[in-house]
Every structure is written in structure tokens, then in C-alpha cells.
Specification:
Layout (H helix, E strand, L loop, with lengths): L2 H17 L2 E4 L2 E4 L4 H6 L2 H10 L1 H13 L14 E5 L5 H12 L12 E8 L4 E9 L6 H7 L6 H5 L2 E9 L8 H9 L2 H11 L17 E5 L12 E2 L2 E2 L2 E5 L10 H13 L11 H15 L13 E6 L4 H7 L10 H19 L8 H19 L2
Parallel strand pairs: 6-7
Antiparallel strand pairs: 1-2, 3-4, 4-5, 5-6, 7-11, 8-9, 10-11
Helix pairs in contact: 1-10, 4-5, 4-14, 8-13, 10-11
Length: 385
């Protein structure tokens, strides 16, 4: 890479970081402040980038999204009847899942790694999506999880591969106004999810070591996007915490580096004769290492440290999870049915919320989709695509 191009690359990095709320220092960068608004801005460029990359799909599928949206005034809390639908490739459910995944969350859409399972929580009475659950293979080495469960490095892959990470988890409008996020989180911990995992992965061998592991979903981990999450706080059923707060992440990741900029960093590493192998089997940690390597060469220390520490939550499916891992005992499974969870959620959360807050009644599905389409056109216009 010529000197002039190197200078341009540094300028582009500085511009991207400043636009996302970072302050530049002599050998790195830090967030300007730690409020929620600033943390949201860190995802802005990556979010816009994903939207533009999928603009044709979003426009094409907007009619499908609009078809299965209800106005808040038509939402009858007592009649909500959720069903867990596993998303299969090539179906309308996949299109619906992807559309909402792209447009709804402030966290940008990311490609899932390794094992993955996707679910739409579907309201059978109102014929509308309540929320989404996107699960994928977890990070292999994660100190906050490993320390909590006392998992040693020697057998870490054995236990971690009997778990999943919730990459996407939450409610869609108008259900989000009535604490539908808690319902989706509850349903992720039901027997149905564990059994679907068993049916999908039984008798399968791992790719890396070619060995067959027990097709048991022992636990799921997830994080609060901007610290502790109100969705997972006090998430109890039958006097047991379904979601357990186990600590904070170190604030490392890749979303502060847009994909277009990341590809330029990879090209820079190639010209520096670095190994930039990516693809199947390398996972998300490989991307972090490449960001670290390239930014260090450009004068930035700890380039993968974005500074947004997230709260980590663990959803155990076994009552004796610690004994299963430490003593290799047989799991004593939790048994949670969709019907029981739903009844509890309505009485404990939803009905109490609507007594205090009727905001959900103002939501209009058609207006929401039209608003998202206007935002998309503004993004495309802004980037000149």
C-alpha cells in the first residue's frame, strides 16, 4: 500500500470513529461518554451499512411485514397465544425473520456463526409475530462464562458445544410496549427449544474434531446491548430465576469497524504479508484478531476494544448445571411449558403494564412500515447508492 493510500486509510478510520462518538487519542480511542445515546451511536455506521446492503430485500419484503402487523388498538392481551416456529430456509418465515432482524434493532444485523437456530414467536390468535430468537454457536473462550461455571480450558469445547448464544432476542411492536420482550425471553427457556436442539443435532459430529457430542442444550448465554437489561431483570418463574446475571464483557467486538472499512484493513494486512485466512471454522474471534493486528500497525492500541461493556446473562436448562459440568452427572431438566409461561407472563407483567401505560394503543402497523421505508431511502440517498 502506497504512503498516500495509507494516509487515506488512517483518515477514514478517524472519521468513522469520530462519527460514532469516539474521541481520538495519541495511541487509541475512547468513547466520548458512557450514556445510552452515545453507546447507540457506536452502531450507527454498521447499521446503515447493513441496511443499504440489503435494501432490495427490505423493499421487496416490506409488504409481507406489513401483512403480519397489527395495530395496538386491536391487541387483546388476554387472547395472546404464542407458538414457537422454527425458521427454515426458503420459507416466508425466513423472509419475515430477516426483515425484522435488519430494520428493528439498533444493533446491526450480523451473520450467524457455526450452529444456528432461528425462531419466530408467533401469536396464533392475532396472526402476528411477537418476537424473534436467533441462536448461534457461542464464543469458545469467554472468561465471564467460564469462570461462573468453573469450566477449565482442557474440556471447554466439550461443554461450550452443549450451549448456544442468543445473538438476537426480543419483542416486536406492538408487543414490545407490553413487556413482550420478557415473554420472548421466557419462551427461549422452555422445553420446546431444548428438544428442537436435540432433534437437530443428535448423531452429528463436530467439524473441527470430528467427534459426536451429547445433543443436550445445557444453557444459553446472551448479553444486554448497553449494560444491564430490563428484559432479563427479575425474570423469575416459580420463584426461580430463569436468567442469571453473571458479569460483564470486556467491551471487545467488531461493530465499530464497518465491513467496508474492515475489508480495507484486511487488504492492508495482505500487503504486509500477514495471514488473513477467514471463512468456515474461524468464527467471530478471527475477525477481532484481524482488526487488532491491522489497527496496531496503524498506530491504534487495542483496536477491537469498542468500550461498550455488556451485561452477560445465562439461561440454564438443567437444575443441577454446576454438577453436570463439574461432576459429569446426569442433567435434571427444568420443565417449562409454553402455556404455563404465557399465563404467568400475562398475570405478572403484561396486564399490570397496560394498567399503567396505554402507549401500545397508539401503534399503527402501516405507519411503522412506511416510516422504515422512508428511513431506508434517506440512508441510500445519504450514501449515494
Amino acid at each position: 500500500m502506497r504512503k498516500t493510500k495509507l494516509k487515506n486509510l488512517k483518515v477514514e478510520i478517524n472519521k468513522a470513529l469520530k462519527e460514532q462518538g469516539y474521541k481520538l487519542k495519541s495511541n487509541g480511542f475512547v468513547l466520548g461518554n458512557s450514556n445510552r445515546s452515545t453507546k447507540r451511536s457506536v452502531h450507527k455506521l454498521a447499521k446503515i451499512e447493513r441496511i443499504i446492503a440489503h435494501k432490495d430485500f427490505i423493499i421487496k419484503t416490506s409488504k409481507l411485514a406489513k401483512k403480519y402487523l397489527i395495530d395496538g388498538k386491536n391487541l387483546k392481551i388476554e387472547k395472546i397465544n404464542p407458538k414457537i416456529i422454527e425458521v427454515k430456509s426458503g420459507t416466508k418465515w425466513e423472509d419475515l425473520f430477516k426483515w425484522w432482524n435488519l430494520v428493528w434493532w439498533s444493533l446491526p444485523y450480523e451473520h450467524a456463526y457455526g450452529r444456528q437456530m432461528r425462531f419466530i414467536i408467533w401469536d396464533q390468535y392475532h396472526k402476528a409475530p411477537i418476537g424473534l430468537i436467533g441462536l448461534q454457536s457461542p464464543i469458545l473462550s469467554w472468561s465471564v462464562r467460564d469462570n461462573y461455571l468453573n469450566i477449565s480450558w482442557k474440556n471447554r469445547d466439550y461443554w461450550v458445544n452443549q450451549s448456544l448464544s442468543a445473538q438476537r432476542l426480543g419483542a416486536l411492536p406492538p408487543y414490545n410496549y407490553i413487556l413482550g420482550g420478557k415473554l420472548v425471553a421466557y419462551l427461549m427457556a422452555t422445553d420446546g427449544i431444548r428438544k428442537k436442539f436435540r432433534n437437530k443435532y443428535k448423531n452429528q459430529k463436530t467439524i473441527m474434531k470430528e467427534r459426536e457430542l451429547p445433543a443436550r442444550l445445557l444453557f444459553i448465554t446472551t448479553t444486554g446491548a448497553y449494560g444491564k437489561s430490563s428484559v432479563y431483570t427479575r425474570l423469575k418463574f416459580n420463584d426461580e430465576y430463569i436468567a442469571r446475571f453473571i458479569g460483564y464483557t470486556k467491551g471487545a467486538g467488531s461493530f465499530h469497524i464497518p465491513n467496508s472499512l474492515f475489508e480495507k484493513l484486511v487488504s492492508y494486512l495482505k500487503q504486509k504479508k500477514h495471514n488473513v485466512k477467514r471463512g468456515f471454522g474461524n468464527g467471530p474471534s478471527r475477525k477481532l484478531r484481524l482488526i487488532d493486528q491491522s489497527l496496531e500497525l496503524l498506530g491504534f492500541k487495542n483496536g477491537a476494544i469498542h468500550g461498550v461493556q455488556r451485561a452477560v446473562y445465562l439461561f440454564p436448562f438443567a437444575k443441577n448445571l454446576q454438577d453436570v459440568i463439574q461432576k459429569n452427572t446426569r442433567p435434571k431438566w427444568e420443565h417449562r411449558k409454553v402455556e404455563d409461561i404465557t399465563t404467568f407472563w400475562k398475570e405478572r407483567w403484561a396486564l399490570n403494564r397496560v394498567k399503567k401505560d396505554g402507549t401500545y394503543l397508539k401503534f399503527k402497523g402501516k405507519n411503522f412500515v412506511n416510516y422504515e421505508m422512508r428511513k431506508l431511502r434517506e440512508c441510500v440517498k445519504l450514501k449515494g447508492n
